[in-house]
Each structure stands twice: as C-alpha cells, then as structure tokens.
Amino acid sequence: MNKLENKIINECLYHEVLDNGLNVYLMPRKNFNKQYAIFACDYGANDTTLLLEDKGEMKLPDGIAHFLEHKLFENEDGDSFAKFASTGASANAYTNYTTTAYLFSSTDNFATSLLNLLDFVQKPYFTDENVEKEKGIIAQEILMYEDDPEYQVYLNLLQGLYNNHPLRKNIAGSIESINKIDKDRLYLCYNSFYRPENMVLFLLGDFDLNKTLKLIVDNQSKKIIGEIKGVKKVFPVENDSINQKLIKKEMDVSEPLFNLGFKEVKIPDNGYELVKQELAVNILIDLLIGKGTKLYQSLYNEGLVDNHFHQYYILEKGYGYALMGGKSKDPDKLYQRIIKDLPDSLNKITIKDYQTIYKKNLGNYIKSFNSFARTASEFINYIFKGINYLDLLDIINDIELDYVIGFYDSLFREEKAVRSIVEH
Amino acid sequence: MNKTNAFNHYKLNNSCDLHIFNSNKFKTNLIQMVIIEKLAAETVSANALLPYVFYRGSNKYSTTREFKIRLNELYGAELSISVLKRGENQLLIFSLELPNEIFLPDQTPLFREGLKLLYELVLNPAMKEEYIEQEKDNLQRKIGALINDKYSYAVERCYQEMCANETYGLYKLGKKKDLEVITKEQLLKRYNSIINNSVILFFVVGDVEDNRVLSDINTVFDFKHKQSKGINKTELISQVSDVKEIKDKMKVKQGKLIMGFRTGITRGSKSYYPLIVYNGILGAFPHSKLFQNVRERSSLAYFANSGLETTKGLLLISSGIDFNVYQKAREIILQQVEEIKKGNFTVQELDWAKMSLQNRFKNIADRIDGLAGHYLLGLINNNPESIDKSLDSISAVKREDVINIAKQIKLDTIYFLDRQEGER
C-alpha cells in the first residue's frame, strides 16, 4: 500500500492497484460514525459513440450511461436497495457527462455493504422485461427535468455553445432515445467500460485499513469482468465557433432566467495543465464578477442580478466553458453591461484581491473535507483527470496572477458568448 | 459511545442561551445565532425581510461586497442567512462557518473575528432606506419565484390549502402585498422588538473550549436583551371532517401529486419515535412501500416518498406522475397507507426502517450543521435530546406502536398540479 500524506488537512490516503487493474484508495477518518464508499467508472453521458476493434464505429442511444446506472441496481436475486436496507446503509448513484458513480454511506455493517456495492456493480443482470419496466421510470425522470427551468436554461446554453458534441444532449436522453435501449446495447456498454482498470474505488470514514483492503482484494480476485477489450470513445469534431448566439424558451417562470456562456477553445491534453487552467480561470471569473467585485455590486444595486447569481468555469478533456447565471428582470441589458464592463473589471484586479481569493480557496479546500460526499465527488472528478485531490493545493500554489490574467483575452470574447434565456 | 454526545448549555450575560457541542472531527467551526419568533400574519413579512436588509451593509461594512471581502479574508468563511418555519414559529438563522485555525498557515484568531462579523451583521446593521426599498422588491420577487420550482410550489400549495384557517398556512417569507407597504419606521420597530425580546439562541459546534467561547460571545455580543417570552406553542389538529381536493393548472410536463395528512404528533410527543418508524415503512426510503409500489412495481413515477413536519404534526406524500395515471397513482398510494393500518408489513420492513433511521441519525451526528439542527428542533418542541437517546428510542419501537400510529393518521388534503388544457 502506498501512503500519501497531506500535512495541511492532516489526513492520509492509502493507494493500491489490484491485480485486476482496479485502483483502490482508502482514507480513514477518525471520530466519525460513518463510512462512505464510492465506486466510479470513467464512462458518462458523453460516451455515446464507440470504436470497437471488430465492428468499427457504433453510435448508441443518448442516455444509455444513465440507463445502465439505473439497471445495475437490479440483480438476479432482486433489488440491490434491499441488500443495503438489510444493513441500514443508504445507497445511491449518479451519472454526469464524464462519469458514472455508485455509492453508499453506512454506520454499521460496513464490510457487508462494501461487498454489496462491489457485487451489484460487477454483476449486471439485464432482461427484456426489466429493461422495459425501467423506461417508464426514466421517462418520468426526464419529464421532471423538463419542468425544471434552471436545468432547461443550462441545457439550452450547451446547445448554443456546441455544434456536434454530445454535451448537447440531456444526460438521461430523451423519451425517444431511451426507447431504443435494449439489453444487448446495455451489455455492450457494460462490457466495454465497466472493466476494473477503468474504475476507481474510494473509501473514507471509520474502518480498519488492512482488514478492509484484504476484503476488497479477496472479492476482486474472484472476478473476471469486462470481456470487450480495446474499446475507444469517439467524439465528433467540434469546431471553435459557437452554434447559436441566443436561445430562448418559454416556461412558467416568475421572471427571466439566464445563462451566459463563453466557449473555451484552448484545452491542454496534459491532466496537470488541464486542472491548473481550470482552477486559474475559476479564480479569474471570481475576480471579474464574483460577489466581492465592484461589478457584481453595481449590477446588484441596479437590480439586474440577485443573490443567486453564480459563476464558474468547467474544463474537461475535449471541452470547456465559463458560465454566469441567475435570474434577471432584464437579461438583455445585463448581457450588454457584462460585455461592456468585463474589461474594466479586469483592469481593476489588484494583487491584494488575488491574495484574498487565494485565502478563500484555501479555506474552501480545507472545508471540503468536512463532508464525505463532497470529498468523494471531488476525488472522483480529479482522479479521472489524472490528479489526486489531496495534491490540489500544490497546483493552487503553482498559480500566479499573471497566469490567471493570461486566459482573459481568448475566452471572454463576444464571438464566443452564448446566451440562454427562459422566460414566461 | 462518545461520538454523539450532547450539547452543553450556558446562559449568556444578556440572558440568551448558548449551546456548545465539542468535537475535533470537523475541519471547521460553526457559530449559529437563531432568532425564534411566533409565526403571525402581522409580522411574518417584516421578519423575513430583516436578514436580507442586514446583509446589505452594517455601520462598519457598508456594502454586501465589504462583507464578502471580509469573509474571503477569513479564509472563505461562509455567512449564510435563512428564514425557516417550524410549526407555528418563524426562524431567522444566521450561520457562520469558519475553517479551524489549526489548519491554516498563519494562526489568525478566526473564531473571534467571525463573532465580530456576525455581530456587525445582526446587531449593527445600516438599515438604509435604499437598502430596505430594494430588498422589499427582491423579497417579493423571491416569493414570486416559488413557481419556478414546481415541486416546492406544489408542496407549499398543499400546506396552504390544508392549513388555510391556521397560522401554519402562512408562507415563511411572508406576503408580497404586506412587503409593498412596509415603511422603514415599521421595520426598525420590528427589529428593536426582536433584538430586545425574542427568543435568541446561540449554537457553537467544533473544536473549541467552552470557557473561551462563553467569554468571547459575552464580550462581543454585548447587547441589551430580555428574553421574556418562551417558544410559541403550535396549534395541533388531529381530526379531519372532509378531505379537501385541490387542483391547480400550469404549463407543466409532469403532474405533481401531493397528499397532506394530519398526524397530530410532534417531536416532543411520546409517539414521535413510532411515528418516524411508521414513516420509514411508508415512504422515507427506497425500500419503503411507496417507492417499491409506485415506482418499482408499477413504473408510474421517478420519485414517490413521504416526509414529516414534526412541530405542526403533518405528513406529506409526494410523487411526480403522468397526468393520465392520476387515479391509479392515488389508489396505489392510499392502499399503502391502508396496508400499514391493517398491520400488513413484515418484520423485515420494520427492521429495515429502524436500521435506516438509525443510520440517518448517526449521519446527522457527523454533520456540523446537522448536530445544531437536530438539537434546535428538540428545543423548539420542548424536548431536546442527544442523538444517542434518539437511537435508543428508535430501537424500542414495536410493531403495535406503528399500527397504533397508522390508525391515528388522517388524510386532509389532496393537491394536484395539473397541465393546462390543450397541452400535450
């Protein structure tokens, strides 16, 4: 076992690569009642086109990764929720654009729950009947999101930013696309991606380190998983220009909701550079229009934004964008003001502002270890980019103000800007 | 077990109560100031407005921006305000969470600095006319924005109709109409009344020394206060004459079915633990009857669950369904309620509910805000308990206790958020 120590937060992380290729990370946390486990696969909603060694390129229905997530909870001997219920543990799962993750939190019978988790994820059981039955449930999930204006305004923004990328699609797919999903397609995706070397197991909480690792090693040694080798993910060519400048949608809302996005075209291949850039541009956007800026304060005073205004920057392998969003009485005027005032806001940034944001980020990083769910989701997000979350502070410390400012010119350009508005 | 030990209670010099929970497992320390006001039509709107006006600026930090910069300097300290309703009480909660100094490069006395900031916010607000006018407008917009989240809107509408003739029917943020006409003078009067006489509690959770905290709060929070009244007693109703049926129509893709029941049981009652076990069997978990029957067996919904309000004694069942299965979903849900009355639940269902509840309570003890929230709810219902006590009480619940509870619960209101005519 490899031991990694983080002196700032005073925690240790243990790492082991098993014979079958599975990466296991253990982070014991003393004084907690709870144990938390997350079993994640480097496969998400974006991965809908595969390149198979024998069959060539194959397009799968949108929403298949999410459908697979739902279906893995069903096993030959019943519903996996029941197995967790019998230990008192609480299980869940999520699918995002890049990752699918299965998790539980327990306060008793940790070993049993852990084996449940490994076994249900690694024993798919799809039948025509159980696949059909799930369609009704997922259809209601899709409709629920169709009534959610915050999700709709975001989804439309992505459609405006991208021309061909699968980000344009709903994570859960559409009612039409999920109807094309069958058990053979689910097995194909499962066997292509749910291979131990493509997955990570991360545990934290109150457990015995050596006993737990032995339990995992014994469990995994018996398993042969994922028969299809050499499958590659294929992404359509996405050009640098945006798809649509302005997208509007009508819904029953009290006042307009808006998302303003800027499409990133400078995307490093290297994981360290990718994460460093993502952190840096998040700092930049906070310095430009965060709640500690004069720009935000004046927009608020004029009633153009409210206190739910938010801004962030996402950078993944193959895509990235900056986003500002919230509610506004006058999204057109707000847009004009942001475009006009961002350069001025950039010129006002001082080294003191930068140091203050550094302190905030340091504090937030420390705080993120309070919540097991938060630590786990951050860990999984970064590990698939090739970065250990416990090393994140080293990257933050490697960032300087000039480097941060350097991203401004290429990103915050009007021709890279897309507006999405949901209004009554 | 000392991982879930209790709060220590102190009286401050100004007669406010202070509750401290010592634990070194968190990376942060939490300070909460909780104002408990009787929920009343005449005061609900002005009370709700106050926290938002406070955040606009104090005599020392003259704008929201200055508060935010100060928070960033305090290593990303988070200062949040919330307005809640618990039974017929309106709660104004001011929460400050700061990283524990021991993890920081310089040993800034963060806790004390945080206290001073909290004092500025609540006890030294600028209350400028322009701030008040703008926040009146913002709060009215916030109240209007309830329709954006269709699920929350449906829940609120159900409560409103169910408790139309009770104080509980008031919305926690008040009424748009009342806000329109509030003057600065009236707001100041309300403010002074709260600061002088309301029930004010302080909670501290974290790695702290009780004596230091007591002396720091006494020094910083040196204001005149006379806690004359106790916590308001909520009107409980356990009988229902006629079941109300309410339908609203909106531009929605999915119907929201909410059913409101009267339990007549509060957090302070002997029947509280049997009630939460009952709710566990009915609809709190994925293994509960509602999820299993509405979702898993009938494929009618993505979510189907039940939740409790334990100060007013209410139970709410919620589900998102297709419009044309309204009758069927309603029947299946009510059938689950009947089954428990008849004692049609297995030993396993009982045990699973108890284990999952215990897991939930132990999880609360692992969350810094969870600890304060759990204890506060106990205080409001005149029965504060440690989590250990809650765990024991859940264990002691018997099958007959659950059946007795099931017989007491009365359906009061069925609310359905329907689509508009002519919609798909």
Automatic annotation (TrEMBL), chain A:
Residues 62-172 form the Peptidase M16 N-terminal domain. PANTHER family: METALLOPROTEASE, ZINC-DEPENDENT PROTEASE. This is Peptidase M16. InterPro entries: Metalloenz_LuxS/M16 (IPR011249), MPP/UQCRC_Complex (IPR050361), Pept_M16_N (IPR011765), Peptidase_M16_C (IPR007863). Gene3D superfamilies: Metalloenzyme, LuxS/M16 peptidase-like. It comes from Iocasia fonsfrigidae. It comes from the Bacteria. Residues 180-348 form the Peptidase M16 C-terminal domain. One of its GO terms (molecular function) is metal ion binding. Pfam families: Peptidase_M16, Peptidase_M16_C.
Automatic annotation (TrEMBL), chain B:
InterPro entries: Metalloenz_LuxS/M16, MPP/UQCRC_Complex, Peptidase_M16_C. Residues 182-357 form the Peptidase M16 C-terminal domain. One of its GO terms (molecular function) is metal ion binding. It comes from the Bacteria. Pfam families: Peptidase_M16_C (PF05193). Gene3D superfamilies: Metalloenzyme, LuxS/M16 peptidase-like (3.30.830.10). SUPFAM superfamilies: LuxS/MPP-like metallohydrolase (SSF63411). NCBIfam families: YfmF_fam. This is Insulinase family protein.
